[in-house]
Amino acid sequence: VYLLQCKRGIGKDYRGTEARTWKGIPCQKWAEKTPHNPNYTPEKHPNAGLDENYCRNPDGDENGPWCYTTDPATRFDYCNIPECESQVTHTGEVECMQCNGEDYQGEVSRTESGFECQRWDAQEPHVHGFTLKHYPEKDLRMNYCRNPDGELRPWCFTTIPTKRWEYCNIPRCTMRPPVSSLGSQCLSGKGEDYQGRIAVTESGNACQHWNMQFPHRHGWIPDIYPCKGLEENYCRNPDGEKRPWCYTINSSIRWEYCAIPRCDGTEQGSPGMSNVPMQIPQPEECYQGKGQSYRGTTSITESGKNCQAWNSMFPHRHEKTPDRFPNADLRENYCRNPDGDNSPWCFTMDPSVTREYCNLKRCDDRTQE
């Protein structure tokens, strides 16, 4: 019940976390007395779930969950909570998602605000690159909510021209999926299934615990990503990096890759030699003109931030995808200039900085000769 973000009937047992009215006005906390002095308080109604400022229905209002508002001119208003019936499958069961819904294949097709989803095979009203052709394994059918790009939870493009996309309200299943015993103790591929206990980076820095925000603040919180194996301070690869990594306890080094022995067993005995081979830089590490022809392997911005991979939508959603710019060589997370900017650039891995120019110099005449 505490995980369901939808209401049954009039929603007297609704215990979700919606905290805005249907007009978008934030709710007043039930325990506070300003701007409105409430009749319904946690003390008077201890079993009504009056936590924080979440929408509730303590008085059995026929119009459903409501809250006191933070607008002095509006004492209370109703909240836009979807009916659970809209999340019932043809088998009669309430749909839920495991983990972050990467494998969700249900039939919910409305966003959390109630907008109807745009079909994945349509390009109106929003043009996008999430097509069945480019994501054949992501079950992009009809206009059902999906999570093809590792977002927090399933989402869809909306049929509203002014609202490009929005998350969908799909409750997390109360039963956790069985933990796979196949979690690898060694490195295969990019190490996304690595579940070992190495907790030190390749240069010897100890890893920061995933549930800590010091010395580095970050978004990879175990409670938000319950199936990424973010235990203790073990090296992990939750975001499809080149190999497992971690934030370090060194305040001057935000994160580093870890040295994980490869699964082929040939180098298990010498961890120092067991890293994935480093990318050999191409000789072309300067650019000509605006750098639209630059094909080097630099992936660091001018302020030292790591570049986001072009085919990734985390931490920044964008339109500069390899399929939309097939001639721009948008490989890995290498600096490029697909749109005729002043010089090569990239999206950054810093959630607060969308994009930056790269740490590259223009080739001088002698270099060109």
Automatic annotation (TrEMBL):
**Mind listing the GO molecular function terms for this protein?**
endopeptidase activity; signaling receptor binding
Q: What is this protein called?
A: PLMN protein
> Among the record's GO biological process terms, what is one?
proteolysis
Describe its partners and assembly state.
Answer: Interacts with CSPG4 and AMOT. Interacts (via the Kringle domains) with HRG; the interaction tethers PLG to the cell surface and enhances its activation. Interacts (via Kringle 4 domain) with ADA; the interaction stimulates PLG activation when in complex with DPP4. Angiostatin: Interacts with ATP5F1A; the interaction inhibits most of the angiogenic effects of angiostatin.
Q: Which UniProt keywords apply?
A: Disulfide bond, Kringle, Repeat, Secreted, Signal
From the record, give the cysteines joined by S-S bonds: 96-173, 117-156, 145-168, 186-263, 207-246, 235-258, 286-363, 307-346, 335-358
InterPro entries linked to this entry? Kringle, Kringle-like, Kringle_CS, Kringle_sf, Serine_protease_kringle
Disordered: annotated span: 33-55
List, alphabetically, the Pfam families matched.
Kringle
What SUPFAM superfamilies does the entry give?
Kringle-like (SSF57440)
Listed Gene3D superfamilies? Plasminogen Kringle 4
CDD domains reported in the protein's UniProt record:
KR
Q: Name one GO cellular component term.
A: extracellular space
* Domain Kringle residue range list: 5-84, 95-173, 185-263, 285-363
Q: What is the lineage of its organism?
A: Eukaryota, Metazoa, Chordata, Craniata, Vertebrata
Its signal peptide is: none
Q: Tell me where in or outside the cell this protein is found.
A: Secreted
